[in-house]
Write a structure and sequence with these properties.
two-stranded antiparallel sheet, 76% helix, 3% strand
């Protein structure tokens, strides 16, 4: 399958690597610019509620990078790796949306995570079809 002249596995590899880099970049911003945390944190929640995601996000970043590498190399692990990442991203997105609904704030996190989850699930579906 192709999208224009770019083969789908290459496009998916690019997306998952980009997603992994974006997760790392987001954490660097949170750590280097602590004032940025308030934009992602729902009211009434301590910063630990946000920073507590470091381990799961590290796994999501590593998983995204690995999935991209697997797609690029046409590894036999490519389908499992992209579905793993899709699950990570979907869980995180649902948490962000759920906590934003309860708190009535913190929508920026949900706005970032929902498209990432949708694209990850779509990418996993395309990888399964390829």
């Amino acid at each position: 399958m192709t999208l224009g002249t770019l083969p789908m596995p290459s496009l998916l590899a690019f997306y998952f690597v980009l997603q992994g880099i974006a997760i790392v970049a987001w954490w660097l911003v949170l750590l280097v610019v602590p004032a940025s945390r308030e934009f992602f944190l729902p009211r009434h929640l301590d910063e630990l509620a946000l920073l507590g995601f470091w381990l799961s996000d590290a796994l999501a970043a590593a998983g995204s990078l690995y999935a991209g590498w697997c797609m690029f190399r046409a590894s036999r692990n490519r389908v499992a790796s992209v579905w793993f990442v899709a699950g990570c991203m979907t869980y995180a997105a649902l948490y962000c949306v759920g906590i934003s609904i309860l708190a009535g704030s913190g929508w920026l996190a949900a706005a970032f995570m929902a498209p990432a989850a949708i694209l990850s699930v779509g990418g996993a579906w395309l990888a399964t079809r390829d």
